[in-house]
Specification:
GO cellular component, one term: plasma membrane
Strand order of the largest sheet: 5-7-6
Helix content: 55-70%
Number of helices: 23
Number of domains: 2
CATH class of the largest domain: Mainly Alpha
Largest sheet: 3 strands, mixed
Membrane topology: Multi-pass membrane protein
Strand content: under 5%
Family: Belongs to the major facilitator superfamily. Proton-dependent oligopeptide transporter (POT/PTR) (TC 2.A.17) family.
GO molecular function: dipeptide transmembrane transporter activity
CATH architecture of the largest domain: Up-down Bundle
Main location: membrane
Distance between the termini: 32 Å
Order of helices and strands: EEEEHEHHHHHHEEHHHHHHHHHHHHHHHH
Number of strands: 7
Amino acid sequence: MSEKIEKEEVTSGSIVETSKDIDVKEVTEQEEERIAPTEEDWKNLREVADNIPFSAFLVILIEFCERFTYYGCSGLFQNYVQHPAPPSYPAEQPGAIGKGQQTATALGTFFQFWAYVTPVLAAIISDQYLGKYKTILLSSLIYVVGLIVLVCTSIPSAIESGAAFPGYVVAIILIGAGTGGIKGNVSPLVAEQYQSKAPFVRTLKNGTRVIVTPQATYQQMFNMFYWGINVGGLSAIATTSMEKNIGFWSAYLLPLCMFIVGIIVVVSGRKRYVEAPPRGSVILEASKVIKLWFKTRNFDECKPSALTKSQPEIMAKVTWDDVFVDELRRALKACTVFCWFPIFWLCYQQMTNNLISQASTMLTGNVPNDIIQNINPFSLIVIIPIMDRVFYPLLRRFGFPMRPILRISIGFVFVAIAMGYSAGIQSMIYRSAPYYEDVTGKVNWISAAYQIPSYVFIGIGEVFSSITGLEYSYKKAPQSMKAIVMSLFLFSNCIASILAFALVSVSEDPKVMWLYGGISIAAFICAILIWVIHGKGDEVDVEEDAIARDQGEMEEYYKKIGKDISTDKEKQDQN
């Protein structure tokens, strides 16, 4: 018999399922009785996503403004540091500091490293003390100071006086801290706007029965979130043109103006966001459970229900409950998947340094060499809606909801293809006239359009692996540790930067071809190992995601640790 979950009033909305005979199906405008799907329902009904809350779109807008700023600035860093300032503008080759490719790649890699270390610290501050909204606001203020420093030290007089290099170093430290604080909290904040945790059967207006699942909903939300990121990433089209025709100061000023708009959005939407209240003891609590696990080697024996019988003397110090132990076990399991992602991000990072330098040795016409990297966000803007509205719904319609581990493995295959292809292009450059292998600082007669597939393949890899990584880390994290676990996923990018540091010595001609080939092979091997080692996790994905507390349990839990969630509940009701 079906289990009744709850009754909720459903507002008018729509679920988009693209196929030959279905376009848009409106949900019935009536009080909906949420019924848990039976085994028969799972066999015969297709999975669909639920309606996305308005507050989630507001958070996506915040991320769009921040990514517009981030990519608009960072996309220029390689040229800014590598090449000297031109005598006048428009310039054939934009530059400012003139430190060479290795220094530019090293500093760019440090920036990537720093930007993905800071989310962990920001997440701890968020989950334990300030909450996500306040942490995002504080990080925004740090970010804007860094942008002001960058703009002021990139004006021609500052470059001539030698202020550009120290100003750049200070700026990337501040911007990296700011972006880390925002990035570590904005992705869990967007997911928190959707509150349903269990699948249920819904009857559409035309009488069709479907299963609405959190898995499909989060998948759609993070697809939309990532789409917003890449729309913002197109800012580099404007800024790379401005650096070539006007100068770097103008190219950095545009992102600063957009970021101010982002701060306005953050402040204006403060009363609409749903967010879990911070937990002051979450790290300490998790460490106590893990310490107990090392003694018992069994998470079930770390639950208060078991400790009451086995170790009653320590119960006075126990502040967690049984559900927290299950959540922590699930989160730690998810974190093992993240260990493979440094290789993925190592491939991805080539877009912001070595592939830009590769383009500088190719024919680019009248456009700057670093504008080609915008093929990546442009391809994602096209691919993500196709995947979200056609590919994934079609698979679900035929009873094959592609689960997270399979998607992640496929993504690794695509970035491996991208790097293998890049190695092939580098080989073509070395075999082209007029300079052949001696291409350092010179241009051979081969079109930079050959690079386009590299950026497209990386984009497809992101759709399968990066978006899924965000979704997976949110779903598997305990309610009180969402930002921390998602930041650990982002931290894998930091490990990739460390690997990139180790490879700086081969980030030059003619060694760079072997760099591309080596990391291509590594990514492909990782794809196989991920599926072999973690593939069985897809079989229990839905069951694991069902681990959650109802509202009564949440209130009792937070009361136990001295927290009040009534304000958060009021915001949830308003949304």
